[in-house]
Amino acid sequence: MSDTTKSASTGTDNVGVVVHAAQDLRIEALPMPTPTAEQALIEVAYGGICGSDLHYWRHGAVGESILREPMLLGHEIVGSVRTPATDGSGPAAGTPIAVHPATTGTLPGRYPADRPNLAPGTTYLGSAALLPHTQGGFARYVALPTRMLRPLPAGLSLRDAALAEPAAVALHGVHRAGNVTGKRALVIGAGPIGALAVAALRHGGAAHITAVDLQELSLQVAQQVGADATLHAGDADAIAATEADVVIESSGNHHGLASAIRGAARGGTVVMVGLLPTGPQPALMSLAITKELDLRGSFRFVDEITDVLDAIADGSLKVQPVATHEYDVADALTAFEVAGDASRSSKVLLRF
């Protein structure tokens, strides 16, 4: 392989996972951050490897977000406050926290006031959408504004909380479908987000949940978090026979979207959580029209992460089986390789 791994020197306590170009991922020594008045110094405990992290590593881009300078990856991070903000905002030293990685944009453009995730110019940790890039959180120490920090409920472990950010993405997608109580649900793509969508549907009171995927491991994880039935993605007839009231499309490819449209009941709702590639995509529009389907987009989340943390803590949202692997930051390249193989893993965590 052409990947490069650069070992950190011993001259600093800080180390991070930096992508320089496609197939060039390095473990590097980093300077200790110097927080501004409204920032806290965070000691990171875990970081979950997201599909976007994998795309930056493999392709040097995520859709229109093209890597143009070295970037610290990672936005699914949890840890504890090492030094609180000097302006008095935010949690005290030692507080375990999860991170909401978004900063609402201020560029011109209209969007609903209650949906800041749609604000033009919104940034996300570990994103190359803008230049300079928004550096991420895959480091032992990061300085973050206190508005991003969410203290953990009592008794919630940092490892379980490491799934809060992707679970918030999944819960937002389920919320976009409306009230799912008593509904028949179908989830296309049972990778980490899809499995967490299954958990969110179960949490929301769905009557029956079917998960669809190509990988046996993904289907097993989906069952562990609440799926009543599973189907292989190639079984088009069985998928169409599902006739689900609500479909969560989380595969992020046009084949999955076609399955979602086929599997939806007449008058049903299809929520598109998986991010399709840029440019035109083939889709079964005629069938969506004659079924009178509601096709709805879902992008990141608003502040569902707070509800997710509470639900994981009280046990009503089962997420633990989704984290199948854990690696020390020194083994980050191996972690990325495993995370990129859906036959071997679901969510892979980096331990800092």
Structural description of this entry:
The protein is globular. The protein is 25% helix and 28% strand. With 352 residues, it is an alpha/beta fold. The longest helix is centred in the middle third of the chain and has 13 residues, at 164-176. The two termini are 25 Å apart. It has 2 domains: 15-163 and 319-351, Quinone Oxidoreductase, Chain A, domain 1 (Alpha-Beta Complex); 169-297, 3-Layer(aba) Sandwich (Rossmann fold), CATH 3.40.50.720. The strands form 5 sheets. Strands 3, 7, 8, 11, 12, 19 and 20 form a 7-stranded mixed beta sheet that branches. Strand 4 and strand 5 (65-66) form a beta hairpin.
Short summary of the structure?
This protein has helices spanning 51-59, 158-161, 164-176, 192-203, 216-224, 236-240, 254-263, 285-290, 304-314, 332-339, and strands at residues 15-21, 24-29, 39-48, 61-62, 65-66, 71-72, 76-83, 96-99, 102-103, 123-124, 141-145, 149-151, 184-188, 208-213, 229-232, 244-249, 264-272, 294-297, 323-328, 347-351. The chain is α/β, with parallel strands linked by helices and 352 residues long.
